[in-house]
Amino acid sequence: MPSTATDPRTGVPRQVFPTLREDDIHRAVHSARLSAAGWAALTTGERSRRLLRLAAAVEDDAAAYVRSECAGTGKPRSEAEGEIANCVDLLRFYAGVVRGDLSPASGHRIPGRESWVRWEPLGVVGVVVPWNYPLMMAIWRLAPALAAGNAVVLKPAETTPDSVLLLAEHAAEVLGPDVLTVTPGDRETGRLLVASDVDAIAFTGSLQGGLDVHARAGVRRVSLELGGNCPAIVLPDAPAHTYEDLVAACTYNAGQSCAAPARVITLAENFDSTVSALAEAMRGRRAGADFGPLNNPDQLARYDSILNASKAAIREQGDVVVAPDERGGYWRPGVVLADLPDDDPAVTEEIFGPVLTVQAADSPEHAVRMANDVPQALAASVWGDSVSGLLGISRELQAGEVWVNCHLEQTADLPHGGRKQSGSGTDLSVLALTEYQRPKTVTVRIA
Predict the structure, then answer these.
(1) In what residue span(s) does the Aldehyde dehydrogenase domain sit (predicted)?
(2) Residue 43: pLDDT above 90?
(3) Predicted pLDDT at 106
(4) Which residues make Cβ contacts (< 8 Å) with residue 237, sequence separation at least 6?
(5) 446 CB contacts (<8 Å, ≥6 apart)?
(6) How far apart are the C-alpha atoms of 29 and 24, rounded to whole Å?
(7) DSSP structural state of residue 296
(8) Among the listed residues 69, 26, 45, the one whose alpha carbon sits nearest the alpha carbon of residue 181
(9) Mean pLDDT score of the chain, rounded to an integer?
(10) Is the pLDDT of residue 357 over 90?
(11) What mean pLDDT do residues 169-193 have?
(12) Which of 6, 69, 301, 320 sits at a 20 to 30 Å CA gap from 94?
């Protein structure tokens, strides 16, 4: 049965997409496996050249990709343009690094023997990505997987398949048929892909979805990037730009970013000034002008449910400025919440919306304990003037990525990945290639 995607800006149905089921998934994975051998047999130089051609195709058709991203997510054009440029950069990055050498050991390691390590692709990788960054989250997964020599079968989110379906058209032209296959559908489609004959699964999404993937995957390779609920520790000597930067990062993509700042933790001595500065910055952020809507009715209901259950006081909220035909969309303002108990649902759960909570700690050490005292451990930031002190705090924070006096700044060159309930595995950087390869040691007896 086909599914109808809705424009989150208006709440109006916009397009019908197919929903694939078991036979469709079986055919997609079978075709990918037939193509995988030929793709893996190419030299790294040839795979690199084809990935560069795919990057050029995305860049040349960037306007169409931007339209697709805006239609599916409702995000402002400026956000979509920056994300498409980032996708092009990611493809070019992996086209380059795949020509390097990842071998951990080679040469004369055993008397009378020569040894080396071959990095071989896994085969067919099943990829399931969410709706918050439809193309970029797909590229994070498929670029290193393809560069490593795998074929990819990718299931996009039900509400946002547009840009990835366009990418599949370009991939068929420049990579070859069935090297990248997109299988649109609902959650059951994703479960069918995970349960199929793929050799590995890369999943980006919720904790519940990740646990389900892990249970279905068995002994196969699994890479999970799950929730964030990220802390930002703001010390009394934080620079003046701290508050505008945190609010901008919190409201980017309507706060629907796993690595976005969610929980601001201050000291008692700068609690009031921090709340006031964040409130002033939030007053200047407008949904409909500076950021887009929430993505779907389920996400809207989650946002409302957590805020309604919170015991916090709303210190400030921004405006919603939309056209009349957008008033049926999934719009919510940016919000600053203060005076929260440690067990408040707005603290313990990831809202995934444009909300900053503010809590007070007794000391920097207490602030670190509060930052670490949630199940998630994806990213964090710390803000202040003492570099040595900030670096010390960065070592104590339980997170796969820590920013100092900045937040939500990423590049293809540096790894990103979670700990605890935020998942396992690595996205970005040369390290992501190892998620989609396995080493084979070859040892030769010499005369």
Answers:
(1) 6-442
(2) yes
(3) 78
(4) 384, 385, 386
(5) 112, 113, 114
(6) 9
(7) S
(8) 26
(9) 95
(10) yes
(11) 97
(12) 69
Torsion of CA 191, 195, 198, 201, to 10 degrees: 50
Instruction: Give Cβ neighbours of residue 380 (< 8 Å, ≥ 6 apart).
Output: 230, 231, 232, 233, 371, 397, 398, 399, 401, 402, 403
Cα separation, 222 vs 384, in Å, equals 38
pLDDT tens digits for range 402-446:
999 999 999 999 999 999 999 999 999 999 999 999 999 999 999
- Identify the active-site residue in 79, 83, 158, 225: 225
Q: Which two tokens stand for residue 402?
A: 């820590």
Q: What's residue 2's pLDDT? A: 83
Phi/psi of residue 256, each to 5°?
-90, 60
Residue 401 known to be catalytic: no
Instruction: Decide if 22 is catalytic.
Output: no
Handedness of CA 83, 301, 417, 406 (dihedral sign): positive
Domains along the sequence of the chain with CATH: 7-226+422-445 (3.40.605.10), 230-413 (3.40.309.10)
8 A C-beta contact, residue 227 and residue 421: yes
H or E, element range at 300: helix 297-309
> What's the pLDDT score for residue 313?
77
**Distance of alpha carbon 129 from alpha carbon 139, whole angstroms:** 10
Catalytic residue among 87, 258, 349, 435: 258
The band of 385, judged by pLDDT with boundaries at 50, 70 and 90, is: very high
In terms of residues, how long is the chain?
A: 447
CA distance 389 to 377: 21
Whether 190 and 204 have beta carbons less than 8 Å apart is answered as: no
Phi, psi of 225 (to 5 degrees): -120, 110
- Residue 104 has what pLDDT? 66
The angle formed by the CA atoms of residues 270, 272 and 273, to the nearest 5 degrees, is 65
Q: Which amino acid is at 387?
A: V
Strand partners of residue 440: 118
Q: Which helix (H) or strand (E) holds 168?
A: helix 162-174
Cα–Cα distances (Å) from 259 to 124, 312, 433, in that order, read 28, 23, 21
The pair of structure tokens assigned to 197 is 């004959």
